[in-house]
Amino acid sequence: MHAPGIFRTASGAAHRPPLRFLTCGSVDDGKSTLIGRLLHEQNLIHDDHREALGRDSKRHGTTGGEMDYALLLDGLEAEREQGITIDVAYRYFATARRSFIVADTPGHEQYTRNMATGASNADLAVLLVDARKGLLSQTKRHALIASLLGIRHVVLAVNKIDLVDFDQTVFEQIAISFNFFAADLGFKDIAAIPISARHGDNISTVSVNTAWYSGPSLLAHLEGVNVDDDRLSKPFRMPVQWVNRANLDFRGFAGTIASGAVTRGDEVAVVPSGRTTKVVSIIGPGGEVGSAEAGDSVTLTLADEVDIARGDMLAAVRDRPAAGDQFAAHLFWMSNEKLLPGRSYLLKIGHRTVSATITELKHRLDIDTLAKLAAKTLSVNEIGLCNLSTASAVAFDPYAENRDTGAFILIDRNTHETVAAGTVDFALRRASNVHRQSQTISRDARSGLMRHKPAVLWFTGLSGSGKSTIANLVEAGLHSRRVHTLMLDGDNVRHGLNRDLGFTEPDRVENIRRVGEVAKLMTDAGLVVLCSFISPFEAERSMVRDLIGADEFIEVFVDTPLEQCIARDPKGLYRRALAGEIKNFTGVDQTYEAPEHPELHLQTVSSDAATLAERVIEDLVRRGII
Ligand code: ADP
């Protein structure tokens, strides 16, 4: 990637904020050529780069020895070899009238993620269309993402107009169908411009070849378009990035102001806790200042000793963000692993990371028609609206009101892959008549009547590995020691509580979530709960671990090789699964993710069930539970 410094900055660029825009289009629509041409015509390329470009054009170019402007931008050697652009690259340039920051994003479908990254802080999107191909799904997808990510200004650059003989009808048909498609996407302005990036028509000067076109050149439009940056006029928001305790007397809260401004003496609220206090001092990079605004990185000291941690938000008292644990949001799914409603993901919003589940997928958007389709899951590159529930309250604004505090990502708990980008639509209110009843008899009081502590023994392993056999022996052993127990196992739960669930991945996730909740209630009653579930996915086991609390959760991995389970086949299920009569059978056509750090690892091939059960009981003694 080129360093920003390689482009000359024309002197006298007006002193207004740079226009942030991104270019998007399918591969070969001419994105890179367009920007290269723009820079070239503005004479913003240093002479030595021009020479190198001439050399490269002969070597790698696709223009038969002519200058290939795309090479200017496709700076990465790897990209040149592959002939595709693979990441978001930001370029800075300026004309006499305006300065620009342009994000060049790739056209391949799987790179929607990069497009979303580039779009999240852009004011305008240049959507490139190949005049010969017309409007493709990819352009519609990009328009949709741009709209959801808050871009309100669009240029529809109908490129390669020379290759359709500068035909007005071709141009107009594309422009009309785009306007029709985008009618409900909330764009403030759509400028359709016929261009040839290769030959320079309507790039920085109006072309004689398109005499029928009365609008401005692309550059003139970009220089003139009015996109007010309204972050300053929005209410004060500062997500706390870290708490600075330089010494015993100093406690400062550091972060970057996301919107609005703050002045010494201002009253601020801490969200989600709702406590309020006053700003005593504002410390910027150069020392103390009287006030600071959006974009500034500062440390604030406050009048009261309020409890504030990383991830909290400081906000204007009279105009606070929402604080809640349920909201509706659009998700852009980016992972090859499908979305699983009910699965626990990590949600990162601002500097806060919490557990979150998708409680309901309301619909998926059809990219071509924008129709709302019923959906059970989202696959890679799909976009849907869903309800989310977080483990604890977080501070947020609807994305439409604040792009900085209304965006989040979802992370896979195990692989740490970013699986989705999200934008908050609105907060969901919990049913207002549901309050946690404060209880006279506490959990500890209940437990105190028993001569042991509560715990969950979570037996996981393949079908036939021996979970129920061992759990039964453990329960019998505990019972004879007067320990109060309860057994939950896959078969009995599926006959009652979970009779509506099958064995697909989403149903398995929900199965375990419900069992986890029941086990939690039973530990509140003071019991030692024995849970015997295949529970094939690490994500759900760690969700239950979080729910119960690590002190009371004992994961017991009943480890039996698959061949051994097939040989035992106590319920004849493997025989049927292998014959194709049962679908989604763990070990046969669905994976089992073995626990990496179970509290107990029992190998059933080398010891008998009674010995292994005794080991479990000994472990409970060692942990001080019984
Ligand atoms: P799961 O509950 O894991 O599906 P089951 O307990 O129903 O498995 O079945 C396990 C089978 O394996 C039983 O028939 C049991 O007698 C047999 N088995 C043989 N050796 C062992 C062992 N060491 N531990 C547990 N079960 C064993």
Provide a brief overview of the structure.
This protein is of the alpha/beta class.
Would you kindly provide a written description of the structure presented here, covering whatever features stand out?
This protein is α/β, with parallel strands linked by helices and 626 residues long. The chain has four domains: 206 residues, Rossmann fold (3-Layer(aba) Sandwich); 86 residues, Translation factors (Elongation Factor Tu (Ef-tu), domain 3, Beta Barrel); 106 residues, Elongation Factor Tu (Ef-tu), domain 3; 179 residues, Rossmann fold (3-Layer(aba) Sandwich). The chain is 26% helix and 28% strand. The chain contains 16 helices and 28 strands. Helix 10 crosses helix 16 and helix 12 packs parallel to helix 13. The radius of gyration is 30 Å and the shape is flat. The N terminus is likely disordered. The structure holds adenosine-5'-diphosphate (ADP).
Using only CA atoms, what is the Rg? 30 Å
The total tally of domains equals 4
Total strands: 28
Backbone structural class? alpha/beta
DSSP helix fraction? 25-40%
Major β-sheet profile: 8 strands, antiparallel
CATH fold node name of the largest domain: Rossmann fold
Which regions have little confidence, pLDDT < 50, spanning 5+ residues?
Answer: 1-14, 70-87
Per CATH, the class of the largest domain reads Alpha Beta
**Gross geometry:** flat
Percent strand: 25-35%
CATH-level-4 superfamily name of the largest domain: P-loop containing nucleotide triphosphate hydrolases
CATH architecture of the largest domain: 3-Layer(aba) Sandwich
Bound small molecules, deduplicated: adenosine-5'-diphosphate
